[in-house]
Design brief:
- This protein is an alpha+beta fold and 151 residues long.
- It folds into three domains: 33 residues, no CATH class; 50 residues, no CATH class; 38 residues, no CATH class.
- The chain has a two-stranded antiparallel sheet. Strands 3-4 form a two-stranded antiparallel ribbon.
């Protein structure tokens, strides 16, 4: 069967496979599929995955336990890239809204303190008293200002 024919018959094939799987327990399906190198995987909820799959556990060096302000303690994936003879840097929580505003306004946009104060008057940001204004239009809390605009 060529790829076009397989695609055209996909619903019928799926029905046959579903009926075959329904007549067996998961252990048998896994054994047969693995012995024939079938590309497959169990459907899992996120809770089930995190509780029962060692590939996403803290035993896997990609994952770490983080504490994020406002979120709490959770598992997070760090970089999977490893360089020989170098320690992997620790994963840090994502920045909170407004955490780097001053750095961006000063270091990236080159705005001095007076210009930043002017922005505060235009669009007081609801996070830490900082301000953000893109292309002369204030951006409210939770909105994303993309190049070429803002709301």
């Amino acid at each position: 069967m060529d790829e076009a024919a397989r695609f055209a018959a996909r619903e019928a094939i799926a029905d046959v496979v579903a009926d075959w799987c329904a007549a067996r327990d998961v252990a048998e399906v896994e054994r047969v599929f693995e012995s024939h190198t079938v590309c497959w995987g169990r459907y899992r909820t996120l809770s089930d995955l995190l509780a029962n799959d060692p590939r996403v556990s803290l035993a896997n060096p990609v994952f770490e336990q983080l504490t994020t302000p406002g979120v709490g303690t959770h598992r997070a994936a760090g970089t999977a890239v490893r360089v020989a003879d170098q320690e992997r840097s620790i994963t840090v929580p994502a920045p909170w809204l407004g955490q780097h505003t001053r750095e961006v306004l000063t270091g990236v946009l080159g705005l001095d303190a007076a210009a930043q104060i002017d922005l505060t008057r235009v669009a007081p940001w609801r996070s830490g008293g900082h301000a953000i204004c893109v292309f002369g239009r204030p951006c409210g809390y939770g909105q994303v200002a993309a190049a070429g605009g803002g709301k």
